[in-house]
Design goal:
It is a single chain. With 287 residues, the protein is an alpha/beta fold. It has helices spanning 12-23, 36-46, 74-83, 104-107, 125-131, 143-155, 168-178, 180-195, 200-221, 223-226, 230-233, 236-245, 251-270, 275-285; strands spanning 5-8, 28-32, 51-53, 64-67, 90-93, 112-118, 136-141, 159-162. β1 (5-8), α1 (12-23) and β2 (28-32) form a beta-alpha-beta unit. It folds into two domains: 5-165, Rossmann fold, CATH 3.40.50.720; 178-285. Helix content is 54%, strand content 13%. The chain contains 14 helices and eight strands.
Length: 287
C-alpha cells in the first residue's frame, strides 16, 4: 500500500482527486474543509475510510498533502497546516496561476512544495471523476514535489508537463481562454440568435453542432486550416453588415465580436489572406 495522502479542500477538484487516488490504491487518510459539515460530505464522497479533519490536523494524518482550495486561500491554508506541525514531506496545490511559492509557509519548515494543475474543467465532483482520467496536468515545484505530481498524473492515466519558471499566469490565461472564454463566446452567440428571433429553447441546440464541429476541426487540423467564414474569405461587406446589426446588442457582445474578429484576421493572415483584404477587415473591426 502506498503512503497516505491528506487533502486540504473539499471542493470539486479535491473530492474528485481524492476519490480517484483512493480507487488507484493511494489511501486518502483525511480531508479538511472550512466547515466540519463540508469535510464530512467530502470524506463520504472520497470514501475508502477517509476521515473529516481540520486544516491544523492534517500533518497528523499524512506526510503528503494536496491543497485544493481557491487561489486566494492557498497561502492561509498552507500557514494553518504548517502551524499544525507539518515539518517534512510533500505538499502540492492545484492552482493554475500560482507557483509553488504560494506554499512558502510550508517550505520554510522543510516541506517540499509544488503544483499539480489539471488542465480540465470540473463542474462537479462526479463529473471530475471522468474529466481527470487521462487529463493533462501542469506540474512544477522543487524536484521531489514535482516528481510526486508527475506520479499522480501517471496514476490517473494522464500526462504531466512543466511550465517555465514564472510563466504560470500565462499558462493559466491560455487555459481560461480555451475553457471559460469559449463558454462566454457560446453565450454571446446564443444571445444574438435569440435577438434574431430564434426561441431561447432552440438557440443553444441549433448552435451546438456548429460549436462542436468547429472545436473538433481546430483541434484536429490546427486553427489556421480550421478557420472558415467571412474573415477567412476577406469578405469585408459581410463583416460590415454584422457590425451594423450589432449596434443595439449589449456592449460586451459588440466588443467580443470585434476582439475575436481582430484575432481571426491575424489567423487569416497566417493562412494566406491577401494583405489588402486583411487591412480592410482590421480597419472595420477597430473601435
Amino acid at each position: 500500500m502506498q503512503n497516505p495522502v491528506a487533502i486540504a479542500g473539499g471542493g470539486r477538484v479535491g473530492q474528485a482527486l481524492g476519490r480517484l487516488l483512493a480507487e488507484r490504491g493511494t489511501p486518502v487518510a483525511a480531508v479538511a474543509c472550512r466547515s466540519a459539515a463540508h469535510a464530512e460530505q467530502a470524506a463520504a464522497f472520497i470514501g475508502a475510510g477517509c476521515a473529516p479533519a481540520g486544516y491544523g490536523e492534517l500533518s497528523a494524518w499524512a506526510e503528503r498533502t494536496l491543497i485544493a482550495v481557491p487561489d486566494d486561500a492557498i497561502e492561509d491554508v498552507a500557514a494553518r497546516i504548517a502551524a499544525g506541525g507539518m515539518r517534512r514531506g510533500l505538499a502540492l496545490h492545484t492552482s493554475g496561476a500560482l507557483g509553488h511559492e504560494a506554499l512558502e509557509p510550508l517550505a520554510r519548515q522543510g516541506v517540499h512544495c509544488g503544483g499539480l494543475h489539471p488542465l480540465q474543467t470540473v463542474p462537479s465532483p462526479s463529473q471530475g471523476l471522468a474529466a481527470l482520467r487521462g487529463a493533462f496536468f501542469a506540474v512544477g515545484g522543487d524536484e521531489p514535489a514535482a516528481k510526486w505530481a508527475e506520479d499522480i498524473a501517471g496514476a490517473l492515466g494522464g500526462h504531466a508537463f512543466r511550465i517555465a519558471p514564472g510563466a504560470r499566469p500565462l499558462y493559466h490565461a491560455a487555459a481560461v481562454m480555451a475553457s471559460n472564454y469559449l463558454v462566454a463566446l457560446v453565450d454571446a452567440a446564443t444571445s444574438l440568435m435569440e435577438r434574431a428571433g430564434v426561441a431561447p429553447d432552440r438557440a443553444l441546440p441549433a448552435l451546438a453542432p456548429l460549436v462542436e464541429a468547429s472545436a473538433r476541426n481546430a483541434l484536429a487540423l490546427g486553427p489556421e486550416k480550421a478557420l472558415t467564414g467571412p474573415i477567412r474569405r476577406g469578405d469585408a461587406a459581410t463583416v460590415m453588415r454584422h457590425l451594423a446589426a450589432l449596434a443595439d446588442a449589449p456592449p460586451s457582445v459588440r466588443k467580443l465580436y470585434r476582439a475575436a474578429g481582430a484575432h481571426a484576421v491575424h489567423l487569416a493572415r497566417r493562412g494566406g489572406l491577401e494583405e489588402s483584404k486583411a487591412d480592410a477587415l482590421e480597419n472595420l473591426l477597430r473601435e
